[in-house]
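As a warm-up, study this chain.
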Amino acid sequence: MLGTVMNLPNPNENGLPLFSTFIDGVAAVSFAVLLDFIGPVAFLVALWLRKPWAPLWAYAYLGIFVLNTFVALVTVSDTLGLPQILIPLVVSAAFLAVIFWKRDYFA
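Now compare it with the structure written out below.
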């Protein structure tokens, strides 16, 4: 989360790849804060309180990243580079797998 705050000027200046387009300016910063700060905090609170909606939140939240990664493979891989696209895909898939296998924790 500290990285999100320190990286806020980057999406404002360079743009943020989102489903085959680059958004920039205030929209990019707002989206970065939503995805990098508010989303994880909501999941951590739900995880701590064992809310039954926590796995669904995680599936939707991480699903956005996975779908965006597949779109980025086709559209912006020459701009961003393959490692910058594949590493988040592997990490998101690992988190999805752990949440799926441990979903009874929330019941």
